[in-house]
Every structure is written in structure tokens, then in C-alpha cells.
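Session log. Operator J.P. requested a structure for one protein chain; no other inputs attached. Running the standard single-chain path with C-alpha cell output.
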Amino acid sequence: MVIDLSFIVNILVFVGASILGFAFFPIRRLVTKLAAGSIRKKWNSLSILILLFLLGYIGYHVIYWETFAENFNLVLSTVFFFSSVFVLLVGSLTLQTATELNQIFTLRRDNIIDPVIGIYNRRYFDVQLSGEINRAHRYHFPISLLLLDIDHFKKINDTFGHYVGDLVLKSLGQLLLRNVRETDIVAHYGGEEIAIIALHTPISSASVLAERLRQVIEKSIILPPSKQENRQEMILTISIGVAALSQKITDPQTLIKKADQALYQAKREGRNRIAIYDDQRMTK
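Structure written below.
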């Protein structure tokens, strides 16, 4: 039985081109999942190169078919076929890997981020505070804790509802993130209270940070006016308690307790102020 090599070459070219065409689906889906940046540009460039390779080989096959050289065309078509399979496998596996990594990132983010405010949640705060205090004792660096409370937040909920209250919390959380260092840990402590772990920060520097945040928030529009909700632009004030590790404050529970005591002092003295806890006396 005589094998028609030209028929085999045609089949290889047709199937290889189809496989390479199908490879575009996972690659293009992968590109849409990637954040804008250099990696996305490189995958876009790769997809264009694959397209040019596909068009170039098919063009070569059409133009030079009349000068068919059995062995050469058969080898070239076979290489093209397996290259197409390779591209499809790489594209599919890369898409699957990117999808699973994105799911892992999303699960991890959901596990540590407060869904309402968009900052770290209480669970993450507790773990990080304990770990950072252990490191501070080991390497002898200072840590301060700021505990913030929105003044008269209950009035906002009672007047405008919990939906607006959530918007206020979210806006405040994002405002705080923009005004602290990347190394500081901003977390939802509970209710309308937000905690900030200031790493490598003595209490003197933490008090400066607290006062700066208080002034920034006091001067900021937390929510714009809304005719639909019948409210004017919303401006907040906050009270802040500050405490730091010391010879007497050595564990997370005590540090939180002292920052909380300082916070309540600030509220008792009229709100919209900071109070600093030290081992000897409370200052404002």
C-alpha cells in the first residue's frame, strides 16, 4: 500500500493550525486575568507572535505546495503539529495555574480583609500584633498602638442608617491607609474602632502620627453631599488612644488595654483629641 505523503502533510497542517488556533482561547483568557503591566504586555506580544507564526506557516504551505519535497515538508509539518500541541498545553496549564493562584489569593484576602471597610480584620490584627511584639522583644525595637474611635458614630447610624454608616467606615479606612506608612498595620478592631500597629515607632513618634491623623480626618470630607439621601457633605472627628511597649507593657493584651484606656480618656475629655498612655500618668 502506497502512502500519500502529501495527504499526511495536509492533515498535519490542518490539525496543527486548528490546535494553534484553539490555543488562543486560554492565552487570551489568561491575558484578561492579568493586571495591567509588563507581564500582560509580554503575554500580548506572545499571542501576536503565535498568530504571525500560524499565518506564516500556512502561507508557506500554500505558496510552496507545488514544489512539494516529501521528506522536508513531512518533517516541517510534523514539527509544526507538535509545536501547536505544545503551545496549547502551555497556554492551558498557565491559565489553570493563574486561575488557581488567583483563587488562593482571593481566599487569603477574604480571610484577612474586613469586607465592609477594606482594611485588615480583627483576626489578622490579633495574629500580627502578637507576632510583632515577639519580634520586638527579640530584636529590641519599639512598637506603638493607636486605637481610633469615630465620635458620635451612633448618631450617624440612627440618622442615616447602617448603609451610610458602612460607607463612612469604608471612607475612613481608605483615608487612614493613604496617611500611614506601608509598614503600619491598619485593622478593624470592632464596631467603629480602628487599630493601627505602628512598627519601629516609639510613643513620641506615635503621638505625632496620631495628632496628624486626627487633623487630616477633621479637615476631610468623608462623604460627599447626597440629595437622594437628603444629607449634606459629611465631616467626622475621631478620638485616639496611644500606647507603646514598655517595661510594664510587654504583651498584646496589656498593650490593647492601655491604648483603650487612653482612648476613653480622650472621649471623656471632650472627644476630637488624642490621649497618650504612659506608665506614670495619662497625657493628652
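Operator note: The two ends are 100 Å apart (CA to CA).
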